[in-house]
Amino acid sequence: MAKKKKTTKASDLPKAFIKKLESVNAKRPKTVIDHILEHGFVTTEELSELYGYDHAPRAARDVRELGIPLETFRVKGKSGRKIAAYSFGDPSKVRGGKIGGRKAWPKLFKIKLASENGERCAVCFTPYEERYLQIDHRVPYEVGGDPEGDLDVADYMLLCGSCNRAKSWSCEHCKNWKTDHSIDICKTCYWANTEDYKHVALRLIRRLDVTWTEDEVPEYERLVKLSKYAEQDLPDFVKECLRRVSEHEQT
Q1: Quick one: 119 and 178 in the same domain?
Q2: Residues in CB range of 88: below 8 A, 6 or more apart
Q3: I want to staple 69 with a disulfide (CB 3.0 to 4.6 A). Which of 19, 89, 207, 222 is the partner?
Q4: Are 157 and 89 contained in the same domain?
Q5: Number of compact structural domains in the chain
């Protein structure tokens, strides 16, 4: 694997920074930190193959959410394709207030979320058993941390694994997540509230995540066939159908 120069030598890091790294006990971020300390950087390939973290950006995000800066760069993987790699960022940018990590979510809190909002994903609205849903901050932890006081269901949401990964990717590529850290901007984002939002990661976009389940699947397959007949990609075909319905109602 070709190595870039953006590696991190433990001997070059300030003692205060090392102390903060050593204070991390949670398994996933600690794994990332220990590997970087030993090897200078860690790749998504290594996180998957050595440690079983198939969603490597989530592992890197765990470190960042503790206030520890990471830089992302590209290296060549075993297949010859470019893959992501992570090394420590500027130690002066460490956010010490978050080094203790997130609050733990009690089991009853997840049950309360499901009771008030339904056993479904808050983004695609697909129904799932509660055990398959994941608790997520409406405002990313990296931006707002844990809200003060007792746990409030209004500050959190239940997401399916697919939507949680999509939200993570979108947020991590947003300027507000990277530099500005404005809670108010996050609150007006699609990923915080799909029913009342102004933007998607600062882009002027309107988005609708739709799934077809169980008895609805034949309807989806019919749409696929019709879109092929119309020689349109499925999203464009569905939008065209909705456009025609809207125009018909206006006449």
Answers
A1: yes
A2: 8, 13, 17, 36, 68, 69, 70, 71
A3: 89
A4: no
A5: 3
The DSSP letter of residue 31 is: H
Q: For residue 238, what are the contacts with CB-CB under 8 A and spacing of at least 6? A: 223, 227
Is the pTM higher than 0.70? The answer reads no
Alpha helical stretches, state H, the chain: 15-22, 27-39, 44-49, 56-65, 107-117, 141-144, 161-172, 175, 183-187, 217-229, 234-250
Q: Kindly state the tokens that stand for 179.
A: 């530099």
Assign residue 78 the CATH number of its domain: 1.10.10
Tokens 């949401």 -> residue? 157
The model's pLDDT over 184-237, given as tens digits with 9 standing for 90+, comes to 999 999 999 999 999 999 999 999 999 999 999 999 999 999 999 999 999 999
Q: Which amino acid is at 30?
A: K
Domain identity same for 118 and 46: no
